[in-house]
């Protein structure tokens, strides 16, 4: 009698550690060939949120070898349910049966690649030379091999798909009598051993009782031995799939189209939120779940409208903000709201464009989207609708207040820092000039955001290292766009030293060179004194003022006193 594993029970949670489980998991031990047959007959289904079969030929051979040697290959997790999820009807080039309507089935949550490999190898009957299932076992070499032909192999090699048909398998074994005596008996013995290994090989199977797909998701995420996370996008793909509509394919098509302008590299969940809103819902997970009840026509229309809205959003970010790729958007969920804005307002007026721009700069500066939650999603969707319908002349949001300029002295320059991206956008808008060569910085290269090679410190790290904390050295107010070659020339020289070189190179253009890098006259004079603190104060204020001017905020003593 197999005991229920407490480890299994411990991962089945929903909203909290004491949340009820609709039905206890049922452990069992099953023959691997029988599990494969159940897949073939449509009793075990591969839901569409699972990956397609992706193992290469070498991985398939290693798995078969593990079974032949009786090495452990892990357990299998099934979910028995009457819920109708779209499932795959083939594994590679092996067709599998569809389930009976209104009949409980077992969705395979963990073990897809392993059971698919076993099922394909044992039951393949295709005609593709290059099929991953075109496999033999070499009795002499005692190893599995892929063939590149459909012709009969030498007698000492047995096709693995004969393992599913004992009569055919042992007919081949009987023919081994035609081989020469020295190894004939040994080969027959090995063939019988191989058959018995596959016939008797057992693995642990845990079957979850019927529960909602929302409850199944966290179980899948925690127990999946491949480390593949089941996301809401995968779940909704399974819940909405039909021969005429595949959610992930639709989202991928949107991202592919945006890739032409370097805006295709972001999470599919962002697009899903917009599809949900475009279909009459909202941005939240609960609203997204309602997509399962929509018709294919409604889903397709939502995808079409989302595509067009994103294209207009990208044009806005390019033209009005100066963002050249999705990587440089401070918060990717800003794109979600922008997508809904441009869906509801395909052709904004000049005043509306101004309000949209102000909203973008304000939400970037305040860091509003760093904690975007379900409540914010609902409020922001309502704000967009009110703006689109003319009930408000601006897009409201919960954190609409101006932070202090001190933030530029506190925030660090890192690739994943939203305010670092904001600084890069502001710098790019001023067409920065390399302080040593007078050449314009390659903005497209700097804003690709794949590395930080175009961004360097005004006060060099080596100059400050002994007396200044690292986080202060690396603050945003100390960062400019500078080529690597110029940065190497600066080395650890004091600003009072290397700025003389800049003065000589710039001559009468010094003010232009400095202002393009957001270095004010006061900041420049502080640098000439090697006064790092004063330099940061002056430059932080200038950067801050430049962003604030793009908003509708009015500076007041109370706002300036706000500590970020």
Describe this structure in words.
This protein is an alpha+beta fold. It has 3 domains: 6-223, no CATH class; 232-388, no CATH class; 407-560, no CATH class. It is 48% helix and 9% strand. The chain contains 26 helices and 12 strands. Strands 1-10-3-6-2 form a 5-stranded mixed beta sheet. It has a 3-stranded antiparallel beta sheet with strand order 8-7-9, covered by helices on one side. Strand 7 (135-138) and strand 8 form a beta hairpin. The model is unreliable at 1-22 and 557-564 (pLDDT under 50).
Structurally, the number of domains stands at: 3
- Count all strands and give the number: 12
- Distance N to C terminus: 62 Å
Number of helices: 26
Largest sheet: 5 strands, mixed
Low-pLDDT segments: 1-22, 557-564
Q: What characteristic shape results from the CA principal axes?
A: elongated
Q: Please give the share of residues in helix.
A: 40-55%
Q: Strands, helices and their partners?
A:
Blueprint: H1 6-11, E1 26-31, H2 32-40, E2 44-45, H3 57-68, E3 76-81, E4 90-91, E5 94-95, E6 105-110, H4 112-123, E7 135-138, E8 143-146, E9 157-159, H5 166-175, H6 181-200, E10 202-208, H7 213-223, H8 232-240, H9 247-259, H10 268-278, H11 285-289, H12 296-321, H13 333-344, H14 350-366, H15 374-388, H16 407-410, H17 418-429, H18 443-446, E11 455-457, H19 461-464, H20 470-473, E12 479-481, H21 484-490, H22 495-506, H23 510-516, H24 521-528, H25 532-548, H26 557-560
């Amino acid at each position: 009698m197999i005991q229920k594993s407490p480890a299994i029970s411990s991962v089945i949670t929903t909203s909290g550690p004491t949340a009820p489980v609709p039905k206890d998991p049922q452990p069992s031990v099953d023959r691997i060939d029988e599990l494969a047959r159940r897949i073939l007959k449509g009793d075990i289904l591969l839901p569409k949120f699972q990956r397609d079969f992706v193992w290469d030929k070498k991985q398939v051979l290693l798995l078969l070898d593990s079974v032949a040697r009786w090495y452990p290959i892990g357990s299998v997790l099934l979910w028995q349910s009457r819920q109708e999820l779209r499932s795959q009807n083939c594994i590679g080039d092996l067709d599998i049966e569809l389930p009976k309507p209104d009949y409980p089935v077992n969705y395979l949550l963990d073990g897809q690649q392993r059971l698919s490999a076993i099922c394909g190898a044992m039951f393949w009957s295709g005609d593709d030379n290059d099929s991953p299932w075109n496999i033999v076992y070499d009795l002499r070499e005692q190893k599995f091999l892929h063939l590149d032909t459909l012709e009969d192999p030498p007698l000492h090699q047995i096709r693995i798909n004969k393992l599913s048909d004992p009569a055919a398998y042992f007919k081949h074994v009987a023919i081994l009598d035609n081989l020469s005596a020295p190894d004939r008996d040994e080969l027959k013995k090995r063939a019988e051993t191989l058959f018995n290994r596959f016939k008797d090989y057992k693995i642990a199977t845990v079957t979850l009782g019927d529960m909602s797909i929302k409850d199944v998701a966290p179980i899948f995420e925690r127990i999946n031995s491949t480390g593949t996370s089941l996301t809401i996008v995968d779940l909704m793909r399974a819940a909405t799939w039909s021969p005429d509509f595949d959610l992930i394919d639709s989202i991928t098509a949107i991202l592919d189209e945006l890739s032409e302008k370097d805006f295709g590299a972001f999470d599919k969940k962002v697009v899903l939120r917009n599809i949900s809103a475009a279909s009459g819902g909202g941005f939240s997970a609960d609203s997204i779940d309602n997509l399962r009840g929509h018709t294919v026509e409604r889903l397709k229309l939502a995808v079409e409208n989302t595509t067009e809205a994103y294209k207009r959003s990208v044009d806005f970010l390019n033209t009005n903000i100066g963002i050249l790729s999705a990587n440089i958007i401070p918060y990717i969920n800003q794109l979600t709201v922008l997508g809904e804005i441009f869906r509801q307002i395909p052709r904004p007026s000049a005043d509306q464009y101004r309000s949209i721009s102000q909203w973008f700069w304000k939400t970037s500066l305040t860091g509003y989207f760093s904690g975007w939650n379900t409540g914010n999603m609902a409020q922001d969707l309502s704000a967009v609708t009110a703006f689109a319908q003319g009930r408000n002349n601006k897009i409201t949001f919960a954190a609409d207040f101006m932070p202090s300029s001190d933030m530029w002295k506190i925030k660090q320059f890192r690739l994943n820092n939203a305010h670092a991206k904001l600084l890069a956008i502001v710098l790019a808008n001023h067409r920065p000039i390399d302080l040593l060569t007078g050449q314009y910085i390659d903005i497209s290269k700097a804003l690709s955001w794949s590395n930080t090679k175009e961004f360097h410190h005004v006060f060099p790290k080596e100059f400050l290292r002994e007396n200044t904390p690292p986080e202060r050295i690396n603050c945003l107010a100390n960062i400019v766009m500078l080529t690597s070659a110029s940065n190497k020339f600066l080395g650890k020289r004091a600003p009072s030293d290397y700025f003389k070189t800049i003065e000589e190179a710039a001559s009468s253009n010094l003010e232009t060179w400095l202002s393009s890098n957001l270095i004010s006259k006061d900041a420049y004079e502080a640098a000439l004194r090697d006064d790092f603190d004063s330099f940061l104060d002056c430059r932080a204020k200038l950067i801050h003022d430049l962003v604030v001017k793009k908003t509708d905020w009015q500076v007041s003593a109370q706002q300036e006193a706000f500590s970020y």
